[in-house]
Amino acid sequence: MKKIIKGLLFASLLISTTSCKDLEEINVDPNNPTEVSTPAILLGAEKKIMDYMYDNWFSGRQNLVYAQYWAQRNYTEEDRYQIRESVNNSYFNYFYTAASNLAKIEKMNSDEATKGTAAVYGDNNNQIATAKILKIWLMQVLADTWGGIPYSEAFKLTDGTFYPKYDDLDQLYASLISELDEAIALIDVNEDGFTTGDNIYDGDPVLWKKFANSLKCRLAIRLSKVDSNWKKYIAEALESGVFTSNDDNALFEYSTTAPNQSYFYRGFFVDARNDFSISKPFTDLLKGQADTLNAKSHPWKGVVDPRLPIYTSANDAGEYIGVPYGVESNDLSSVAPGIDYAPDFSKGKPLVVQANFSVPLLTYAEICFILSEYNGFSADEYKKGIEASIDFWSDMNVAVKGGKAVSDADKATYIAAVSSKVNAETVATQKYIHLYMDGTEAWAEYRRTGYPLTLLKPDEHSTVAYLYDDKGNITGTTILDFTTLSETKGDLPARIKYPTNESTLNPTGFKDAVAKLTDGTNNYYSKMFWDVRTTSNPHPVNK
Question: Which segments of 400-469 are extended strands (E)?
Fold first, then answer.
């Protein structure tokens, strides 16, 4: 675990973003100085990205829900794919503003007029590389969320580009890989990185290089069905150096001290939003419990995952029960055994809502699962991935919460129980279990692979509800179905709609991007170019 976040007062120096002219604008007050130090910009950008990426809105009401890790206790319309446009508009702008500031770091370290001053805080090229790598990580998240987005013409407001085009997603991915290679080549591990301001790796160029190569693996595996060079990209990354242990994990660590707590904590305990809990589909997967309502198999029926008590908390009866997914809000009170039986995160306070929870950007366990697939679903990397995942979550549970560690015996027993068969399904499902709280990546991997099979699809049975007579007596039960409020063509959402305010802020780019979507409409079902599944389920073995 790296040092607790420090010096967050730098964040107050970050350029304000409250009135952006368009999605590319860095809001500069002409009446006040605007040139702040590169560490101040970096720390502000890191914190802004993590605060908004891992919070009760972008994650809690969107990506964690779409990945079916969480379910709503109140506003279940969002589980049923009814997005709040105000939230969609805001987060698109938040992330682009942060990316703009990362681009500013690149410029300050390359322009002759400013590079000398910037070099006080670390080698110019290493600063450029750090900003590039984090920007690429962010842009992949945005691309996997919305689809084609502005990139090649983005971040050029000062050059007069006010209305950047939306890059096609395949071209964007090619650009991200190319620029990632540039960043890797720039890093000099014998020179200083950021001397301050970096809460992810404390400016260590060795770790930033490993992160870049590991990120290249993530990009490559997403292209495994559409780019014949995907294995070449991973081979190059391996030669250059990827994560080799949990010590390499890219994490952003929060503090127990206000106002620098994690935004999950702030949502539950500062804003008092007890809207979410762990979902029933995910809880049942961890419990080894098959979905009998939909006659679905379980890859490891009867095997209880040792990460279960780390990921969530038990209810007052000591039971692990998740909130049914996709239930209409007026049916919640009738759900059997009842919504009150689900764990209350604000009371149980599991690891993921602790103030100093470390949010993950990319981890060694994920790389192990990628390498398992790369090597034809290798059992060795698969087992290493499970072990790394359990160790990661167990160690954080001890360090952050003072919780109980998973014993070596329990870890070994579990790994043996889930390793009798290693294939596309088991690798993808274990990867999904590990990626808990990284809803964007889990949702993207489902769209690529069709796994896990345990996720609830539209029109499938959600849960059992009680029937009552006019005196409030229970007279029987009925099965509730998961019905969506937006068309997704029988599957999970393939993307998020472009924000509505883009139609006025960047009308030409918006219009051209929408025209390329399925049916020429801004919808939830237009597939990403890397999602070539012909059904909602499994992907073929990679060749």
Answer: 461-468
Question: Residue 405: which of 422, 426, 390, 423 has the closest Cα?
Answer: 390
pLDDT tens digit sequence for 492-540: 999 999 999 999 999 999 999 999 999 999 999 999 999 999 865 555 5
- Tell me how far apart the alpha carbons of residues 100 and 87 are, in angstroms, rounded to a whole number: 20
Are the C-beta atoms of residues 91 and 49 closer than 8 Å to each other?
no
Q: What are phi and psi of 75, to 5 degrees?
A: -90, 75
Alpha-carbon distance values, 389 to 8, 223, 262 (Å): 29, 24, 21
Spacing of C-alpha 193 from chain mean position: 26
Give residue 197's identity as a one-letter amino acid code.
Answer: G
| pLDDT at residue number 536 | 56
Give the C-alpha separation, 264 to 55, whole Å.
5
Q: How many residues does the chain have?
A: 543
Map 213-236 to HEC letters: HHHHHHHHHHCCCCCCCHHHHHHH
Task: State how far the Cα of 254 lies from the Cα of 257, in Å rounded to an integer.
Answer: 9
Range 317-323, long-range pairs (CB < 8 A, 24+ positions): 317/341, 320/283, 320/286, 320/287, 321/280, 321/283, 322/71, 322/277, 322/278, 322/279, 322/280, 322/281, 322/282, 322/283, 322/284, 323/70, 323/71, 323/72, 323/73, 323/276, 323/277, 323/278, 323/279, 323/280
What is the residue type of 388?
Answer: A
Query: What are the start-end ranges of the E strands in 127-275?
Result: 250-253
CA distance 448 to 536: 10
DSSP E strands in 257-338: the ranges are: 276-278
Contact 487, 523 (CB under 8 A): yes
Query: Whole-model pTM above 0.85?
Result: yes
Quote the CA–CA distance of 363 and 431 in Å, as a whole number.
11
Specify the residue for token string 């040092």.
Answer: 3
- CB contact set of 333 (below 8 Å; sequence gap of 6+): 339
Express each pLDDT in 206-224 by its tens digit.
999 999 999 999 999 999 9
- Domains of the chain by range and CATH? 8-520 (1.25.40.390)
Tokens of 457: 């699809």
Give the type of residue at 474. Answer: I
